[in-house]
TrEMBL record:
Residues 245-300 form the Acyl-CoA thioesterase-like C-terminal domain. GO terms for molecular function: fatty acyl-CoA hydrolase activity. The lineage of its organism: Eukaryota, Fungi, Dikarya, Ascomycota, Saccharomycotina. GO terms for cellular component: peroxisomal matrix. Residues 46-120 form the Acyl-CoA thioesterase-like N-terminal HotDog domain. InterPro entries: ACOT8-like_C, Acyl_CoA_thio, TesB_ACOT8-like_N. This is Acyl-CoA thioesterase II. GO terms for biological process: acyl-CoA metabolic process; fatty acid catabolic process.
Length: 314
């Protein structure tokens, strides 16, 4: 049975990222979170899914050889996670190769599996290191949306800050004003992760993450922040009313490179693939602050809305 720990304060100035995400080893390939994972909002039914993904990545790294970093994650949110009890984690070592290792990671709360992930890690996931070693790996990426390339990011206001999960959001004017662009199923916004500097009221000044492992935790946490409302409005569905129910069903990430800083503004471009039977399938691309595509995301979400279908121009 998990040991109950009082939930830590939600003021980011008083929260240590290590306290919020770190785990304690309690047995061979078994870990326990130092603190419960938090909800993004008091009204949410469970802990933020991105933080489950981040802590799963942490324990996978801890059970892998030195130098191995995440290559991909495929996971399922099995049950809601409360913000009272820290998660226990069990890791099964599936394979240990020279270039890739594979782990199955189970998140357990009150003796019930609430999250499960298959995680692949590799020691060859850095384009910079490859070039440094004299290699010339072929590289291609989908370019960012044109309005991202033209934007003066520093001039855009911060639209949302969720201190409970360390997320900060900026939205492009073209996305806010749906009438300024043609109806589309692909939209972008800016996101970054971390803590404000002590004594600073400027959300744009965040503490750098000295431990590279925490960069992957930050990117993993960011990956679950999917703004379906923007996407749904842009295809002609009125989502002005709050959804009756929304929850992530599964989550996959492909980490293409380690050249990113989660505490800098990263573009998150999303494409709506399909809506049907109360489920929404979304594909996402995450770009670093240099415009390099560093991660891809695929997620299906249960999304039951009370909105009405409008005439779509698509």
């Amino acid at each position: 049975m998990n040991q109950n720990i009082e939930s830590s304060t939600t003021k980011t100035s008083e929260i240590d990222l290590h306290q919020a995400f770190d785990v304690i080893q309690i047995g061979p390939n078994k870990f326990r979170g130092k603190s419960p994972l938090t909800k993004p909002h008091v009204l949410n039914r469970g802990a933020y899914g991105g933080n489950l993904v981040a802590q799963a990545i942490l324990v996978a790294i801890k059970t892998s050889p030195a130098g191995f970093k995440p290559h991909s994650l495929h996971s399922y949110f099995v049950k809601g996670v409360n913000d009272i009890t820290p998660l226990d984690w069990e890791v099964e070592e599936i394979s240990n190769g020279r270039s890739f290792v594979n782990r199955i990671v189970k998140g357990i709360q009150n003796d019930i599996v609430v999250y499960i992930a298959n995680i692949s890690l590799t020691n060859r996931n850095s384009h910079r290191e490859a070039v440094k070693n004299g290699e010339s790996p072929f590289q291609f990426q989908t370019p960012e949306d044109s309005y991202i390339q033209k934007a003066r990011i520093q001039d855009l206001p911060v639209d949302d800050t969720n201190e409970k999960i360390f997320l900060h959001i900026k939205t492009f004017p073209e996305v806010k004003r749906s009438t300024t662009i043609e109806p589309t199923r692909k939209l972008s916004y800016l996101v970054k992760w971390g803590l404000p500097k002590p004594g600073s009221t400027d959300v744009q000044e965040l503490q750098p993450l000295e431990d590279p492992i925490y960069q992957f935790l930050g990117l993993s946490s960011i990956s679950d922040w999917i703004s379906l409302e923007y996407l749904i409005n842009h295809i002609g569905i009125d989502s002005s009313q709050l959804p009756r129910h929304t929850v992530s069903l599964d989550h996959s990430i492909y980490y293409h490179d380690d050249d990113f800083d989660a505490t800098k503004w990263m573009a998150y471009s999303m494409k709506l693939v399909r809506i049907g039977l109360g489920r929404v399938l979304v594909e996402g691309e995450i770009y670093n602050d240099k415009g390099v595509h560093v991660a891809s995301v695929v997620q299906e979400r249960l999304y039951l809305i009370n909105g009405r279908q409008k005439k779509s121009k698509l």
